[in-house]
């Protein structure tokens, strides 16, 4: 065997060892969690880290079956060559491995503060195979797509490429059971390292693992959501209410921001059930749920508290704001033309309490809102009362 052949065998052995090490580390990391954002961060860290595949930048898009679009879920990469050098110098000095780079804090920072991610987070692309967009076409190819400068020139007006200025890139499908559920776009804009056949081969192996991990995560989150959802109204259930209120109360304490709770009870609901049957009652519950979703704000949390009671957690809302929101709901329900026998009218009694005015902990906030609701109910119904009692 010649020295050249020996060197070639050694190179192939080292290459195989590196590939197996990367795949093993990423696979082990993905098995530590079922939460989708954590999975996506592990995948992109594996694609971009010096101890992973080492691409300079990577963007991950997932299919949304409801909107029939590809949506950007995460992106990792420096904003400039200077940023890249700073990051890589720091990583090299610290000798961090993949496990060191993965943390919930990093996931949050990437989702909230990464300028690179915010370039793409609102860019969506239809799944229509006839759409002229790069990612729409890549999705339906179902295989890795390596694009050179000349290939990219054919899509020079593509919105993604307008934001992702590059002269060479690779688009890798994320598959589960031969179905594409997303795409990763990666390049080496700063190092200008060519993307080789070996690079594409190991990237494909990593993407195959990633596609299955994403599918498992989606199934897990679907099961979790189902366990936290009321089957009649499709609102969050009581368990979710308790967990979320604990989280938001802690945040309000730490940030010294207001937090309000509105509890509402359907007036004469037992009479409705007893007179016209539970099917009519269930229909009313569903329609009340729709009204609550329609009039709530994006960051409000709407729950079926139990029986004929509903809860609305109003984050960063003081007592005055929360009273106004509750009153709009009450009036909307009062004025609705209910399709019930004998023109049966539905109304609600609502109680509102706020932190820090009325309560020093979560349990007291619930108790004060509950007491205000019963005052509303037993002093005439169809009204909103606010908690005014001291600690």
Description:
It is built from 15 helices and eleven strands. The protein is α+β, with helices and mostly antiparallel strands. It has two domains: 3-227, 2-Layer Sandwich (Beta-Lactamase); 238-386, Reverse transcriptase/Diguanylate cyclase domain (Alpha-Beta Plaits, 2-Layer Sandwich). Helix 1 (3-30) packs antiparallel against helix 2. The radius of gyration is 27 Å and the shape is elongated. The chain starts with a helix and ends in a 5-residue tail after the last strand. The model has no long low-confidence stretch (mean pLDDT 88).
Unreliable stretches covering 5 or more consecutive residues = none
Q: Calculate Rg over CA atoms.
A: 27 Å
Mean pLDDT: 88
Largest sheet: 6 strands, antiparallel
- How are the strands ordered across the major sheet? 3-2-1-6-5-4
Output the CATH class name of the largest domain.
Alpha Beta
| Element pattern in H and E | HHEEHHHHEHEHHEEHHEHHEEHEHE
Fraction in helix: 40-55%
Task: State the end-to-end CA separation.
Answer: 87 Å
- Output the CATH homologous superfamily of the largest domain: GAF domain
Strand content: 15-25%
Count of strand segments: 11
Could you say what the CATH architecture of the largest domain is? 2-Layer Sandwich
Tell me, briefly, the overall form: elongated
